[in-house]
Amino acid sequence: MLYIFDWDGTLCDSAAKIIACMHRASEAQGLTPCSDDEVRDIIGLSLPEALARLYPELDERGIGHMCEAYGLHFREADQIPCELFPGVSQTLDELVSRGHQIAVATGKSRAGLNRVWSNMGLEGVFHSSRCADETASKPHPRMLFELLHELKAAATDAVMVGDTEFDMEMARRADVPRVAVDYGAHHVSRLKAYDPLMCVSEMSSILSLA
After folding, report:
1. DSSP code of 103?
2. Alpha helices in the chain (DSSP H)
3. Which terminus of the chain has fewer Cβ atoms in its 10 Å neighbourhood, N or C?
4. What pLDDT, on a 0 to 100 scale, did the predictor assign at position 88?
């Protein structure tokens, strides 16, 4: 089976860093910072799409400036890596030991994902990955279609594990079964509307599917 994971809020406990960096970028650009909940709500989208939702008054140039400001603050903050959620590393190891494939589908940029993997010593752990700046942003299903094709897996032989409606909607559009985690960016009540196979509070719980 192919297990596809979202990164921020599902495997990595990075919401606080994302929120803080978004606030700093907004202030640097002379914008009124959005609330923590508003920023948390867009975690998982590509950065340009997230900013367009947070600041609909910005034109393309303004979004570009915000992307640069956010990237500057996030790269500085990311010198100290966020931690994986409890049980994540062990669960990934166990899935691979049982012969399953693991992949990541994320709203992060490729440079951002590669940087965090390097800082955390995770290069080579996953069989593949897709980032928002090299395909369509969630909830478009393209990144799932690309991973299924690359890893030669049928949609029925895969599962998408995520913490946001964007993950659940992307998987539903691709006809991929879904698992929701209840400790991430979106409240689990929102995720249950997408008929996940299960809602878990600990990543190790997904091993019951393996």
Report:
1. E
2. 15-28, 36-41, 47-54, 60-77, 88-97, 110-120, 142-150, 165-173, 188-191
3. C
4. 98
Asked if 144 and 166 count as a contact pair (C-beta separation under 8 A), the reply is no
The type of residue at 170 is M
Calculate ∠ Cα 194-200-202, nearest 5°: 150
Instruction: Please report which residue ranges of 55-162 form alpha helices under DSSP H.
Output: 60-77, 88-97, 110-120, 142-150
- Phi-psi label, residue 36: left if phi above 0, alpha if psi -120 to 50, beta otherwise: alpha
Quick: pLDDT tens for 164-206: 999 999 999 999 999 999 999 999 999 999 999 999 999 999 9
Residue 163 tokens read as 């913490």
**HSE toward the beta carbon, residue 109, CA cutoff 13 A:** 13
DSSP state, 122? -
Sheet holding 178-181, edge to edge: 128-131, 101-106, 2-5, 158-162, 178-181, 198-200
C-alpha–C-alpha distance, residues 2 and 4, integer Å? 6
pLDDT at 210: 82
Q: Are 204 and 188 in contact (CB under 8 A)?
A: no
State both tokens at 130: 């897709």
The pLDDT tens digits of the residues spanning 56-113 come to: 999 999 999 999 999 999 999 988 889 999 999 999 999 999 999 999 999 999 999 9
